[in-house]
Structure prediction request, 282 residues.
Amino acid sequence: MAVDLHTHSTASDGSDRPSVLVEKAVGLGLTALALTDHDTLEGVPEARAAAAETDLELIPGTELSLDHQGAMHLVVLWLEPGPGPLQDRLAAIQHGRHARNQAIVELLGELGMPISVEEVAEESGSGSVGRPHIAAVMMRKGYVQSVAEAFDLWLGAGRPAHAGRARATPEEAIGLALDSGAVPVLAHPHTLGINRADEMADLLDRLRGAGLVGLEAACSGYRRHEREGYADLARRFGLVATGGSDYHGRYKPGLELGIGYGDLLVPETVLDRLRVYRRAVA
Ligand code: AMP
Ligand code: FE
Ligand code: FE
Ligand code: ZN
Prediction:
């Protein structure tokens, strides 16, 4: 029995509607699906409605980008739509995204690749608008061959059309998640760009101290030794070794829901270990 605890829909930078993700999860025989769109819970009602007619457990969640050199992402599970400490913060984060996207569009214009915010909004549909949408517009206009190339040449950190935005610190984000009754998980740890064991140990110590619950050890593309290495790290630091596909539909070609690049498997037992940390909030 398998689950997928990290996925994106049209509510952020995925290309499948939330209801389609649910359909696909059911088709794959998954028993649970976490919808973790970047900085938004907008896709949750549609996913819930679709899941209500099935045996699939739908876990509402989000994925936050944190203030840390390298890309540090936090997956937050069981974050309920509605008012709450982290939920309220998402609105401010959306403002920051909007201003950042505007800045990128201006930079691209100066670099001879004019696109408009309207075109980006159209590509995005509803929910969180992000760089993958900008990349897709650039591709359509023939400025780049792929979304990956748009990041490598222009939109990635240190590239000419890169613009930053304010991010929560890891401590802040973990605290807000816990105060909201949700379960914080460190996403795809290989993207932290840490290759020294002592540096990773210091970081996990610090995040565990802030209340981190889980560490993604099963990610799309991980080889067996990586999965085992991260699972071992999780054990050493008292974290739940979890995982998910980070499915984005056509924005990440070749990466499938549930199975990643074909060999991903996140067992249902992981969910039971995480569930213990979920907290009811008044
Ligand atoms: P944003 O949230 O708007 O800053 O965009 C970040 C998102 O872009 C990530 O969550 C990924 O989905 C995607 N992304 C980041 N780096 C790359 C890359 N090199 N190639 C393709 N997609 C990427
Ligand atoms: Fe994404
Ligand atoms: Fe991520
Ligand atoms: Zn993700």
In short: The mean pLDDT is 96. Residues 13, 38, 65, 130-132, 147-148, 151, 156, 248 surround adenosine monophosphate (ligand 1) (CB under 6 Å). The two ends are 33 Å apart (CA to CA).
